[in-house]
Write a sequence for this structure.
């Protein structure tokens, strides 16, 4: 079963309550999304670590229920 | 699983640039893999492409090995560089080119 943009957002917000999240359904098929996640939690982390943190927030759904999520992470400015 | 890890370790130690992908460099089987192949080709890099679709143990093993849930995965000099999004972002900002030259790997761009 695929995930909706709302569900993706909820998972991410559980781990990053301060996050600004912008999700686009790229193909209109609930299967190919892009997400930009901006949070203070990314401070001091490498880009790989930042993406790993988001994947962890998605609790194993990335690569399974969630087929394609193009990800961009940013550290929020004070 | 440890046999697969050994196999992965051997590949990334023996080859400067290794791309774990779906399909091969001539016929990528997924848009994200194709996108990374295109970037590597644009940079004129010689790389070893490993098709994870040929080996389901490898396909799952590489995800655990890297702690990364998706394919493709790019390794340079034994170091995980990223998947499609990160590689693309690094290429666009020029970071990838800098990274390669820091590692002593020549590229065209």
């Amino acid at each position: 079963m695929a995930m909706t943009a709302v569900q993706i957002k909820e998972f991410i917000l559980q781990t990053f309550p301060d996050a600004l999240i912008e999700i686009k359904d790229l193909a209109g098929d609930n299967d190919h999304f892009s997400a930009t996640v901006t949070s203070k939690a990314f401070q001091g982390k490498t880009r790989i670590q930042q993406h790993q943190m988001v994947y962890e927030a998605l609790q194993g759904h990335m690569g399974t229920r969630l087929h394609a999520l193009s990800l961009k992470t940013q550290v929020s400015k004070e | 699983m440890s046999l697969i890890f050994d196999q992965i370790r051997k590949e990334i130690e023996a080859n400067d640039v290794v791309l774990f992908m779906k399909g091969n460099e001539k016929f990528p089987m997924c848009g994200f893999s194709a996108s990374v192949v295109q970037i590597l080709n644009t940079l004129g890099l010689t790389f070893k492409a490993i098709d994870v679709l040929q080996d389901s143990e490898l396909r799952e093993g590489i995800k655990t090995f890297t702690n990364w849930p998706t394919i493709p995965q790019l390794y340079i000099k034994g170091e995980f560089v990223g998947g499609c999004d990160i590689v693309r972002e690094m290429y666009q900002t020029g970071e990838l080119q800098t990274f390669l030259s820091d590692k002593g790997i020549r590229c065209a761009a």
